[in-house]
Design goal:
The protein is of the alpha/beta class. It has a single domain, classed as Outer membrane efflux proteins (OEP) (Up-down Bundle). It is built from seven helices and eight strands. Helix content is 63%, strand content 14%.
């Protein structure tokens, strides 16, 4: 099967990446397989309601046979043969079994639902990796833009310096300093390009989709503080409890009375008349009741085991909620920290821009060298990269907060 492709002109959203991973990641196939398994289990259990037909045959030889302990006048009773033969067809039809088939069906369904939810839990955990790659790509693209902007600025300054060289206004080394920095920027752009390709490949592996490296990534904007859904782990704990309840029902029905109708037809020597020493056909029909009146408290102990399992699930749920609250607190602190950093970033960039404008005028007037100017320009773009990094980190922190809380 060929993986779907997102073309360059298409826009890619974070939600689309989630959707693609939930659909195409190999683990997602298990949901369909588990559903097929559930349907087969239900079909198998329903067969227990149908009549069961069995063929039985035996040939035996015994050391002694039943004999009549007296004789009758004018009557000869032949002794039974020590070699005996019998073939029967038995038909058994369930009439009542205490609801065990229904209980077993519900148990299988609850088990499959819990397994499917476990798949959902594992798929949900992929979102954290998708966030890492998606926002890594956003940051890489922002760096690319800033590096291209810096390169364009330096190329323009290089042309100005070349013109000034003709009039001897600047030294040749001034142009060489700028050209060396442009080469360095090209190296940085090459590094970013390969970092982006690596991130695209990681995202492709999770989403099962081929992406064009020039695909436009949309910046997430909606961050709701109120979530209408819950973490899949919490739903899993609930389904595990339902599975235990279903197991308790199965245990309860195990010792209830079971009523079956049966029909047996056969051919043998002897048949039902043990005194007739010849091959004959025969049949027998009736009902059979089975009822376990005492099981040495086995059922009680099994229920106690299930109650302990419920307590274990409750403990796991409590542990999960404690860890979830701790992670939410850490995410809140991270968000506030980055917000404060962004406030400082804006001030720093404004100051750096003023410094660069002043340095540009000073370089034209020969007050400072091109190296001094280049140092100020580099610090300005490093401040801009830092500011972009903080903005992407803030978006990532907000998305991670939603992932932790449940989306």
């Amino acid at each position: 099967m060929t993986a779907p492709t997102i073309w360059a002109q298409e826009k890619l959203t974070l939600e689309k990446c989630y959707e693609l991973a939930e659909k195409n990641y190999p683990l997602a196939k298990q949901n369909r397989l588990l559903q097929n398994q559930s349907e087969l289990h239900s079909e198998i259990l329903s067969k227990d309601r149908l009549p069961k037909v069995t063929l039985n045959a035996q040939a035996t030889y015994q050391s002694e046979v039943t004999q009549v302990p007296f004789s009758m006048p004018n009557t000869t009773i032949d002794p039974l043969n020590k070699d005996q033969y019998r073939a029967t067809i038995d038909v058994n039809q369930l009439i009542y079994n205490g609801g065990i088939i229904k209980a077993q069906t519900q148990l299988k369904e609850s088990q499959i639902k819990a397994q499917q939810q476990l798949v959902e839990v594992n798929l949900y955990q992929l979102k954290s990796f998708i966030n890492q790659y998606y926002f890594g790509l956003l940051l890489g693209q922002e760096k690319q833009e800033l590096l291209h902007a810096k390169k364009k600025l330096l190329q323009e300054k290089s042309k100005e310096i070349q013109a000034a060289l003709k009039f001897g206004a600047v030294l040749p080394s001034s142009e060489q300093v700028i050209e060396a920095e442009i080469i360095k920027i090209n190296q940085q752009l090459n590094d970013v390009k390969y970092d982006l390709l690596k991130l695209w490949q990681h995202l492709e592996q999770l989403s099962g989709t081929k992406f064009n490296p020039n695909t436009i990534l949309e910046i997430p904007k909606n961050f709701s503080s109120e979530n209408k859904t819950i973490r899949p782990e919490l739903e899993l704990f609930e389904l595990q409890n339902q599975q235990i309840n279903a197991s308790q029902k199965v245990i309860t029905t195990t010792n209830l009375p079971k009523l079956n109708a049966f029909l047996q037809g056969g051919y043998g020597n002897p048949a039902l008349n043990m005194l007739n020493n010849s091959f004959e056909t025969f049949y027998m029909t009736g009902v059979r009741l089975n009822w376990t009146l005492f099981d040495w408290n086995k059922t009680k102990k099994e229920k106690e085991v299930l109650e302990i399992s419920k307590q274990l699930i409750a403990s796991e749920k409590e542990t999960f909620e404690v860890n979830q609250n701790r992670q939410l607190q850490e995410a809140d602190f991270e968000i506030e920290k980055i917000k404060e950093q962004l406030n400082s970033d804006s001030e720093i960039i404004q100051l750096r821009e003023k410094i660069v404008r002043s340095a540009e005028a000073q370089m034209k007037n020969g007050v400072i060298t091109s190296s001094d100017y280049l140092n100020d320009v580099t610090q300005l773009f490093e401040s801009k990269i830092t500011e972009k990094t903080h903005r992407i980190q803030l978006l990532l922190a907000k998305v991670n907060h939603q992932i932790i809380k449940g989306i």
